[in-house]
C-alpha cells in the first residue's frame, strides 16, 4: 500500500475523491449540501460554528462499496470518518474530529440479517437503529427483548462501538456485542472471533476466538469500519418490573450508592440501574424554565420543590427487575427493604408482563422495560428548549457511597460557580463502578453560555484526571484532552495503540483523531 | 530497537543470555537442569520426547526483573516463552512452542496485592494459583468466593489468559479478569483500561477504558507478558446448591442440551454447567481399567454398567445454583421440573451454606461450589493411571441439541475406529454455546498409543474446521493447524494479528508460535 500523509482534502483532491465516490455509490448518495448533509455536524454548536463538519458525506449501501471507498481514500490520501447514524449529540452527534474529512455514513446499510429465537441473538448492519430492531422483534412476534438506550434513534452497532449505554441485562459492559465483520484500512474484510473461520457456526454465540479476541479493539478506535455485528437479546421474561427509588435528602447519595452496590453484587439487581439528581430526573418531563427563571444554577429550595412536585426528590433511582413471578416478588421485597431502611426513602415498582410495557405512562419506565422510543429526546431541552444542548462530562467512578459524595463535593461547586446546573446521572454500568454522566446543559443559541459550558468541561476533565477519574468517552472537542489524562508510564497505553494504528492503517485514513488516536503523519512528533 | 531475526538460541548466544539472566534474577533462579527444570516440558509426552522443551527457565521475582529479561532478549535475539505455573497439561503443560526458547516462569511473582471486600475483587500477580487465592480468602475470612477450575494448581492469571474454564458466575467468557499490567516487548510497562491513568480508582472495576480496550488482546497471544490482573470475586451467597442431572440414554443429549440452553438464557442457571459422558464422569472417581480390560473403546454395555454403578448414567450434568434461599428453592424446582420432563432423567441438589462446601463428599460438587483442590487431578489417569495423559480436542459448538447430536455422530466414530474412548465434557461457557472438550486419553508410557492420539487430534481439528467448528484453544503440537482453520477471506484475521505482532514485537522475542502467531522472521513468507 502507498502511504500518503493525510490531511483534510481540498481542491482537486476533494473533487477527484467525490467523483470516485459517486462512481461507487451513485451521485445521489454523496452529499455536499442540503438538509441531510447538515445533520453531519455537532448539532449543539451555535449556528455558524463549524469545527466538526465534513466536506462530503458518502452513504454506501453494501460492504463492497465500503471497501471500494476505503481503497479510494488510501489512493488519494483522503481521511474518512465512519458513523452509523451519528446521533449521540452529547458527544458531538454526526460531527467528526478532523474538519473537512469525508464522512462515511452507514444509514443505508440497515438490514437485519438474522433474528434467531432459539439462540436469542440478531445479526445486523450498522444502519439498524434501536427503533428498527425493536420494531422488527415486535412485528415478527419474536419472544425476545432488546436492551435499549434512552433515545432509540441511534445505531445499535454505533452505540456499542462507542461504549454507549443501555439499561437491561445486556447493557452491562460488552455484554451485547458478539462477533464483528470489519472493513480494514486496506479495503480488506475480516471477521472477529469464530467468524474468522469460514462457515463457523458460533460466530455470534462465542465471545472469544482462537488467538486474541479483536472485538474490543474496534470499539472507541479507528482501526476498521464495522459492517456487521451480532447482538445478544434476552428471552422475554414472565414479568418485568420498572422500579423507582426516591430520596429527598442530598446526603442520602452515600447510602443509596452503597445499597445499590450490594444489591448488584449479589445479583438481586441486574442491568444498569441509575441514580439521577433532581435536574436530571426533572429533565425527562419538564424544562428548567418551568421551575426557575433566575440566573445561574437552580437553588436548593427550588430543587426541593421540583423534587416534591414531580415526586423525583433530590435523588431518583430508575431500574427494573425481571424474571419468573416468585423471583421478581422476592427481589422486589428485598430491594424495597434495603432502600427503605434509609429514612424517608420511597420505593415503587409495578410488576407487568413484557407486553404491557408499551402502555407504561412514564417514558423512563418504558425504557428500563425494554421499549425503544424517541420521547426522552426532550432531555436535551432542560435549558434552552428547542435550542437546548448538553455536553457530557462522564467519568468512571467506584460504586462506593463516600467516594461518590467526595466526587460531588469536588465537582458540583465548579459547575455552580460557572452558573451551570450540575445535572447528573450515575449509571451503574456494572456492580463495581458507575459512569457519572454530568451534563452541563446550555442554550446553544447563546454563544457565551456555550463557551462557558465548553470551558467547564475542559476544566473538569483535567481536574478529574488529577484525582484518578477518567471519562468513559469524550466529546469531539475534548478527545485529545481526555486521552492526555491516561499518561501512566509516559503514555504507554497511547504509544502501544499508536503502534497498532500505524501498522493497520499506515496511510492514516480511518477516522483520524478518534478518541485521541492520530496517525503518525498527524502526531507532530 | 534493533530487530534481530530470532531462532532458538544456542552456543555462545545461549551462554551469554544465561549469564545476563543470572545477573538479573540470581543464578539460583535460572534453571537448566534438575527436577523443577524438568517440569517445563509437556508432561504427557513419552519419556525421551522433547519437542517442547526450553533451553533454560528464568524465574523473575519482580516486574522490573521481567522488564530487564525482555530487554536482554531483544538485545541478544533470544525468544522467550512466558507462563504462570505451566499447568494445563491437556494443552502442553509447562512446555513451549519453539524448542530451545527460554521459559520465563512467573511462579515467584505470587503476591496477592489486594483483596477488596467492599468491591469484591482481588489484584494479583501471575504466580498466584487458584489454591493460593482460595486459601487467602478463607484464611482472611473474606466474604467472597472465587470461581475455580477442576484442578486448583494453575495460575489464576495464566488460566484467564489462555481462556481457561472455571464454573461459577465469573467463569463465563471474560467475566473474571478486569485490568491488566503488561510488560511490552520493548521492556516497557503499560496498564490497560482505566489503569492507563496514573492513580485511577477504577482500574479493576471498569471493564473498558477510553479508546480501545486491550485486555483481550493479551489473551491467547504473544504481545506482552502480563504481570498483574484484577480478578472479580463473588460475594458469598446465602446458599449454594451443587446439582447433578443423570440420564441413562445416549440419545437424551438432544433434550438435555435444549433444556439447559433455555434455563441458561432465562438466567435460571448461571455459571458454566457441564454435561459429561460416562467415561468423563467416571474418570473423576475411577479408572478405565476398573471396568474394562479389553482392547479399544469401552463397549456400550460396559458404559451402561459404569453409569448404573456410579450413578452417572450415560450423561451426567454438573452445575450449581446460588443466592437467597427462596430464589435457590424456586430455581431448583424449575430446573428439576425441566430436566425430569425427559423420561428417566434424575435430578439431585443439596442446598448448603458456602461454609459447608468443603465438606461435600464428591470432588465435583466441591468445585462447582467454589472449593479449590487438587483431587480431580486423577482425571488424567483414566487410561494408564500414573502414566495417563490426555490431549484435548475442544471445539466451540452451538448449544442446540440436534447440532450436538450431529457433532457426536460425526466425531465419536473417528475416535472409536482408532481404538480410543470418546471421553467428552460439554462445557456451556455461556447460554448460547458450549466447548466440547473431547479428551483422547492415552497411556503416555506407550509411544504407539500416544502417536495414535496425536494423529486422531490432527484429524479431528481438520475435519471440524471443514464443518465450521473451531477449537477454543490448542495443544502446542496443533496450534498452527488449529489457526489454519480460521481462513476466512484468505486468513484476514491472521494477517491482521500478524501486523500487530510485527508492530509491537518487531524482534519477535515474545512466545513465538503461540496460538499460531509467529513473528515475521519465522513466517517463511
What descriptors fit this protein?
525 residues, alpha+beta, five-stranded antiparallel β-sheet, 14 helices, 19 strands, disordered N terminus
The geometry of chain A reads as: globular
Largest β sheet strand count, sense and barrel closure of chain A:
8 strands, antiparallel
Beginning-to-end CA distance, first to last residue of chain A: 23 Å
Strand content of chain A: 15-25%
The overall average pLDDT of chain A, rounded, is 95
Number of helices of chain A: 14
Structural class of chain A: alpha+beta
The quaternary organization reads as homodimer
* Chain pair sharing the greatest interface: A-B, 100 and 100 residues
Low-confidence stretches of chain A: 1-5
Radius of gyration of chain A: 23 Å
User: What fraction, in percent, of the residue positions of chain A are helical?
Assistant: 25-40%
Number of beta strands of chain A: 19
Amino acid at each position: 500500500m502507498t502511504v500518503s500523509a493525510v490531511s483534510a482534502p481540498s481542491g482537486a483532491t476533494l473533487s477527484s475523491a467525490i467523483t470516485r465516490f459517486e462512481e461507487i455509490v451513485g451521485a445521489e448518495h454523496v452529499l455536499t449540501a442540503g438538509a441531510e448533509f447538515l445533520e453531519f455536524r455537532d448539532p449543539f454548536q451555535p449556528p455558524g460554528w463549524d469545527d466538526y463538519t465534513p466536506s462530503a458525506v458518502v452513504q454506501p449501501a453494501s460492504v463492497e462499496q465500503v471497501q471500494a471507498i476505503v481503497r479510494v481514500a488510501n489512493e488519494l490520501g483522503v481521511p474518512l470518518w465512519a458513523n452509523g447514524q451519528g446521533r449521540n449529540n452529547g458527544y458531538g452527534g454526526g460531527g467528526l474530529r478532523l474538519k473537512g474529512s469525508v464522512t462515511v455514513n452507514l444509514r443505508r446499510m440497515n438490514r437485519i440479517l438474522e433474528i434467531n429465537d432459539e439462540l436469542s441473538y440478531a445479526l445486523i448492519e450498522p444502519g439498524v437503529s434501536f427503533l428498527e430492531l425493536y420494531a422488527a422483534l415486535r412485528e415478527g412476534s419474536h419472544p425476545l427483548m432488546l436492551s435499549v438506550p434512552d433515545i432509540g434513534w441511534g445505531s445499535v452497532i454505533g452505540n456499542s462501538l462507542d461504549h454507549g449505554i443501555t439499561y437491561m441485562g445486556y447493557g452491562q459492559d460488552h455484554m451485547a456485542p458478539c462477533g464483528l465483520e470489519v472493513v480494514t484500512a486496506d479495503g480488506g474484510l475480516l471477521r472477529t472471533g469464530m467468524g474468522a473461520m469460514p462457515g463457523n457456526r458460533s460466530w455470534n454465540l462465542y465471545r472469544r476466538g482462537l488467538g486474541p479476541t479483536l472485538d474490543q479493539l474496534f470499539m472507541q478506535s479507528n482501526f476498521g469500519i464495522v459492517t456487521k455485528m451480532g447482538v445478544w437479546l434476552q428471552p422475554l421474561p414472565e414479568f418485568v418490573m420498572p422500579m423507582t427509588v426516591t430520596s429527598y435528602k442530598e446526603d442520602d447519595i452515600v447510602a443509596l450508592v452503597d445499597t445499590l452496590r450490594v444489591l448488584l453484587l449479589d445479583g438481586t439487581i441486574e442491568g444498569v440501574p441509575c441514580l439521577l439528581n433532581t435536574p436530571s430526573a426533572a429533565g425527562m418531563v419538564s424544562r428548567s424554565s418551568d421551575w426557575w427563571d433566575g440566573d445561574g444554577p437552580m437553588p436548593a429550595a427550588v430543587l426541593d420543590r421540583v423534587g416534591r412536585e414531580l415526586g423525583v426528590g433530590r435523588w431518583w433511582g430508575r431500574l427494573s427487575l425481571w424474571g419468573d413471578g416468585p423471583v421478581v416478588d422476592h427481589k422486589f421485597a428485598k430491594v424495597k427493604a434495603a432502600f427503605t431502611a434509609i429514612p424517608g426513602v420511597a420505593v415503587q415498582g409495578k410488576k407487568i408482563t413484557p407486553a404491557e410495557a408499551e402502555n407504561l405512562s412514564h417514558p423512563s419506565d418504558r425504557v428500563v422495560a425494554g421499549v425503544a422510543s424517541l420521547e426522552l429526546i426532550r432531555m436535551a431541552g432542560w435549558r434552552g428548549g428547542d435550542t437546548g444542548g448538553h455536553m457530557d462530562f462522564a467519568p468512571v467512578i467506584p460504586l462506593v457511597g463516600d467516594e461518590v459524595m467526595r466526587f460531588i463535593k469536588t465537582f458540583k461547586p465548579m459547575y455552580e460557580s460557572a452558573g451551570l446546573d450540575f445535572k447528573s446521572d450515575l449509571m451503574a454500568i456494572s456492580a463495581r463502578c458507575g459512569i457519572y454522566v454530568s451534563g452541563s446543559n446550555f442554550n446553544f443559541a447563546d454563544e457565551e453560555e456555550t463557551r462557558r459550558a465548553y470551558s467547564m468541561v475542559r476544566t473538569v476533565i483535567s481536574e478529574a484526571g488529577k484525582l484518578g477519574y477518567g471519562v468513559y468517552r469524550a466529546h469531539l472537542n475534548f478527545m485529545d484532552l481526555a486521552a492526555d489524562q491516561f499518561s501512566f508510564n509516559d503514555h504507554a497505553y497511547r504509544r502501544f495503540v499508536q503502534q497498532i494504528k500505524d501498522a493497520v492503517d499506515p496511510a492514516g485514513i480511518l477516522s483520524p483523531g478518534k478518541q485521541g488516536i492520530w496517525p503518525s503523519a498527524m502526531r507532530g512528533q
